[in-house]
Amino acid sequence: MSVSARHALAVWRRNATMYRRTWWLNILPNFFEPVFYLLSIGVGVGAYVTRMDGMSYVAFLAPGLVCVAAMNGASFEVTYNIYVRLTFEKAYDAMLTTPIEPDDVLAGEVLWAVTRAAIYGGCFFVVIAAAGLAPLPRALLALPLVPLAGLLFAAIGIAFSLHIPTIDLFSFYFTLFLTPLFLFADVFFPLKERLSPRWLWVAEALPLLHPVRLARAAFRGTATPILLWDVAYTVGVSALLLVWARRGVRRRLTS
Amino acid sequence: MLLELSGVSKRFGARLAVDRLDLAVAAGGCFGLLGPNGAGKTTTLRMIYGVTRPTAGTVRVFGLDVTRAARAVRARIGVTLQESVLIDAISPVDNLRVFGRYHLLREPELSRRIEELLDFLELRSHADVPVKALSGGFRRRLAVALSLMNRPELLVLDEPTTGLDPAVRLALWSRVRALQARGATVLLTTHYMDEAQRLCDRVAIVAGGRIVADGAPDALIRAHLAAEAVELDCTPQEEAALADGLRPRARLRVGGRAILYVEDAGALVAELRHRNPGAHRPFVVRPTNLEDVFLALTGTSLEAA
After folding, report:
1. Could you say which residues of chain A have pLDDT below 70?
2. How far apart are CA B187 and CA B24, in angstroms?
3. More confidently predicted of B301 and A178
């Protein structure tokens, strides 16, 4: 069995069809959320912080929040939405009566989650750029990171979704996994300055840390060797989890 | 052969859902898989379109091994599942469009087929209304329309009319016949014996994962019972006396009711009238149907006379 790009695209289009019907409802929060964060934390809290890493606090915050937006965009799609399509809408049962294979379903869903991440993170970027917080043009280098972060969290979320017995566990995923990542993965403060060096290697396991570090480097326009590790982590972990998810999809859809 | 199952078994853990099934279906006509819930019908269908892998044996459709060429087989099959796979939030037309894309159909062919199916299954009146607002019968017709998007050579219907009212069932049956007339082969599962009798030119009765009888409905009735059935409420003693005197070809007892199968009910009816002048013991004379065959083969006590 192998992925057929055209069939995967048909899976993607099903989701796009559903999304497009209410796109303006879906896309509006994507613009408001960054505005709220930037105002409250960036401008509000930031007023008490003089300089952060050589820049204003709100400017420090901006690149990390773009990655968080991508993370959230992908995560919602591959948790609740996939579960609904799998269990209630029987969408995959329908697809598997046609030439679509489980691998196509996985590829189409991951592609769609990446798309959602790109929309979500892209909107965030537009707001940040409009607020003058993205140093153009070099900050544009951060844009490819948005789908890349989306891929990473699509892979993590889909592997989780396929291996849990009940929908109730999604709240754990959000409150015990995504929320701590959001709070502790370099977005709000540089982890390496707050964590004893002995434990820094543990922090390297946090998935969000890597896209955030890459985005910040793009905004700042500086490249260091550790960025290679960040790219390798993001691509490698995504690939490993997708291999695992592939088995999960087959197990859930076929017998 | 359009469809060939040889020695097919499927085990789910400790449960053997399908047990060494052999089946060959030629192109054309309508083939019915009959059986109670849990008999292994749906599992058999899933193996035919390649979503369930047999534990043993081979399934060939259009001469292709389904486990190796599922994509190619499903491109030529249409499947209507038992549970709804419709997208509630969008209209029938949009459902058809989404489903057509699964088959890689593009414009203008996509729209052409949608138009065709809107007419064929009489969906035009509510073609642009969200599916969630539609009646059960309309939804089922739409479900059948989805499975026809690829103009299948083989249409698989899993319990097509379960839960539908009689008028809707009749309408759906007429569409199935129209499809057959166009040359499609139909494979359906049902636990409605009347449905099987009306639609199928061949049926297989499945129980406990095995085929217990296979043939044309009339032939099955002739082979296992007799053309007419006489039903009456009576005690086993009274039944024995009747059977003794009139020698029905077969007898079946369901609770307090006896069913006697004879080629010509005339003599039996005359005898019943003769024995109970004026008492008017109520009885029913009717043609034997597949339900009787099914009961005889799978269920309650049947004594060949």
Report:
1. 1
2. 12
3. A178
Question: What pLDDT is recorded for position A1?
Answer: 55
Q: Which residues of A lie inside 8 Å of B (Cβ-Cβ)?
A: 4, 6-7, 10, 13-14, 17-18, 21, 89-91, 93-101, 253-255
Does the pLDDT at position B304 exceed 70?
no
Question: What are A123's two structure tokens?
Answer: 């909107």
What is the helix (H) or strand (E) element at residue B154, kind and residue range?
Answer: strand B154-158
In which element (H, E) is residue A192 found?
helix A191-194
Nearest by CB to residue A14, choosing from B12, B53, B98, is B98
Predicted confidence at residue B305, as pLDDT, reads: 36
Instruction: Report strand pairing: B3-12 vs B15-25.
Output: antiparallel
Please provide the average confidence, as pLDDT, over all residues in chain B. 90
What are the pLDDT digits (tens) for B257-272? 889 899 888 888 888 7
- B185-190 and B3-12 as β-strands: parallel, antiparallel, unpaired? unpaired
Choice between B197 and A94, residue whose per-residue pLDDT is larger: A94
Confidence of residue B247 (pLDDT cuts 50, 70, 90): confident
Q: Mutating which of A97, A100, A112, A251 best tests the B interface, going by the most B Cβ atoms within 10 A? A: A97
pLDDT reading at B303 higher than 80: no
The encoded tokens of residue B134 equal 């539609």
Q: Where are the alpha helices (DSSP H) in chain B?
A: 41-48, 70-74, 92-102, 109-120, 136-147, 166-181, 193-199, 217-224, 236-246, 266-275, 290-298
B79 close contact with A: CB closer than 8 A: yes
Q: What is the CA radius of gyration of chain A?
A: 19
Distances (CA, A) of B299 to A74, B33, B252: 54, 17, 10
Element (H, E) at A231: helix A226-253
DSSP code, position A165: S
The DSSP 8-state label assigned to residue B159 in this structure reads S
User: Which of A97, A99, A255 lies nearest to residue B52, judging by beta carbons?
Assistant: A255
Q: How many CB pairs under 8 A join A and B?
A: 77
The pLDDT, as a whole number, for residue B279 is 63
Residues B43/B106, Cβ–Cβ less than 8 Å? no
